[in-house]
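Task: encode each sequence below as C-alpha cells.

Item 1
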Amino acid sequence: MHAKALRHLRRADPVLGAVIARVGACPLKPHTEGTHFDYVVRSIVYQQLSGKAAATIYGRVLGLYGGAPPTPAQLVKTAETTLRGVGLSTRKAEYVRDLAIGVRSRALPIDRLHEMTDDEVIETLVSVRGIGRWTAQMVLMFRLGRPDVFPELDLGVQKGVQQLLALRKLPTPEKMTRIAERWAPYRTVAAWYLWRLLDLEEE
C-alpha cells in the first residue's frame, strides 16, 4: 500500500531507511468507520489521556446512546453534567457539545472535510473550541488518510527525531518542520516510523 512512499523515504534519508528496514511494512490506513463527526468527538475524548483510560471513558459515552456514537442532535440534548458523569472533564464536555452545536447549525461543515485541502481542514477544525492543530493533524492522518502531514507538535515524533538524528535535546517544532522537508510528500508515513522507532528503543 505504501510501497512508493517507502522507496522515496529510503532514497531521501538512508538513516530513516534503516529504521524502515528494522520496523518492516507500514500498515497505516485511514479509519473509515462512522462519520467525520464521530471521529472528531472520539479525538476530543482521547486528548491528553492514556489509550486505556480514554477507551474506558469513550465506551461510557457510547453507553449513553445504546453503544453507538451520538449524533450531533443527541449530543446537543445531553446535559454537560451527564457527560461529566461518565468521566469527561468539564472542558471536554463543553467541547463536544460546542462541536455538536456547530455541526447541527451547519456553521461547521464537518461532513465535507474530505473535500478540503489539508490547510482548510486544519482551519475548520481549530475554529472549534478545544480542538488545536495537533488534533486536526491526527484527523488528517488517521481519518482522512492524507499522505503528507507532519505533526511537529507531537512529543512522540519529537522524541523520534531526536533519537533518529542523535540530537542532544528535543528539536523545536520549527526545527522539526525543517528536518521533515526531506520526507515530503510522504511525511505522514515518516511520522509513523518515528513513533515506531520509540517502540523499538523500549523493547
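Item 2
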Amino acid sequence: MKKTLLMAGALLALTAGMASAAGGINLSWTDCGAAGALNNSFACTSNTMNGKIMIASAVSPAVLDEFVGQESEMLIQTNQPALSPWWGLSSQAGFNCRGTTAVAAGFDFTSGPFTCTDPWSGAAAGGMNYIGAFDGPNRAQLRTVCAIPGSTQIDDATEYYLFKITLLGAKTTGTGSCAGCTDGACIVLKSIKLVEVAGAPAGDYLVTTPITRQYVTWQSGGALGGQCPGVTPTSNRTWGSVKSLYR
C-alpha cells in the first residue's frame, strides 16, 4: 500500500510538472481566459463603445524570479479583401482613418477585473504599434511592450493579466466617419515573450500555446468563422515541442 501511494505521488508530481512546463496564453473580451468572451459585437450606430476590451493573459512556463516585462504580437484579419477604413488605427498612410485615438493599450489592472492575477501592481509602462496590410491586404499587426521598474516574481501555475487592448468608437458614424465597423474580424494573440532582468537565471520565454484560446472575434468574424491567422492548436505538448514549431 505504501509503495502504491509513493508511486501515485511521484506520478502526480511528474504530471503537474509537465502541465506547467508548456505555459500558455489566452485572449478574451472583458476578462482573462475562460472568464471572458470569444466574440464582441457592436451595432455601429454610435461613436461611443463600452466594454470593447481585449485582455491578454498567460501562465509562465517556469518560475521567473526577476520578471520585468512582456512583449507581444497580435494579428488582425477581416472578412474583406482589404482592411476597411474603420480598421485604420495608426498614423501610417492609408491606415489612419480613425488613427491612434481609436485604440489604446493598457497595463493597469488595479481597478479590475480580478479573476486572474495582476503582476504589475499598476507600475507597468509601455505602448503599442499597429501596422496595416501586414502579411496581406486584409491583415494588420499589433505589437505591445511594457515593463516595470525593478522586477517581481511570477510562478508557473498562476494565470497573470499582461495587457489589454481597448477599441474605441471614434469616427464610426456621422460626418467624417470611417466605413467598415460591421466587417467581421478575427484577432489572434500570436505570442507573448515573458522578459526577465538581463542575466537572470531563468531567462526569457516566448509563449505561443493557447490555454483556452488565443483569439477573439469581432462581429462574430463574418465568413471567417474560426479560421484565424496563426492560431496554434490547444494541446498538452511539452514546452520543447512547442518551441520547435517556431524555429
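Check on item 2: Residues 1-21, 235-247 have pLDDT under 50 and may be disordered. The chain has two helices and eleven strands.
End of task.
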